[in-house]
Amino acid sequence: MTKRSDLVESMAIAAAAACLAHCVALPVLIAALPALASVIPVPTAFHIAALIFAVPTTLFALGIGYRHHRRAFPLIAGLAGLALLAIAVIVYERTPGEAPVTMAGSLLIVAAHLSNWRMRRHPA
């Protein structure tokens, strides 16, 4: 069970980190090269697909961790991060608020997975 949960947790961390990298890199590129914004827009479908991937992997990995260590922080942080990602897609899509809300959500999800990983390895 640990190997499978480690794999899912690793996938979830990688997805959250990729989301964060995407959110940091794209605004930097757009700020540096304004012409790119109109030439290569990121479709809404990408953000929806990322959210559809993030929700089950995050809930699965954090749920397994919670059953193991019984600490609420990773689960609460993960749920808050997922909520922010959903808000970014639903409310802030294609507005200046999208990137900061998405980055905050991604950071919460990464923190949730890292703390969950540590707590599963070293339950106190």
Give a topology summary.
Elements: H1 2-32, H2 34-39, H3 44-69, H4 73-90, H5 98-121
Categorize the overall geometry.
Answer: elongated
Q: Rg to the nearest angstrom? A: 16 Å
Query: What is the average per-residue confidence, as pLDDT, rounded to a whole number?
Result: 85
What series of H and E elements makes up the topology?
HHHHH
How is the main sheet built? none
Terminal CA distance reads 20 Å
Description:
- This protein has 124 residues and is an all-alpha fold.
- The protein has one domain.
- It has five helices and no strands.
- Helix 3 packs antiparallel against helix 4, helix 3 packs parallel to helix 5 and helix 4 runs antiparallel to helix 5.
- The mean pLDDT is 85.
In short:
This protein has helices spanning 2-32, 34-39, 44-69, 73-90, 98-121.
Q: What brief labels describe this structure?
A:
124 residues; mainly alpha; 5 helices
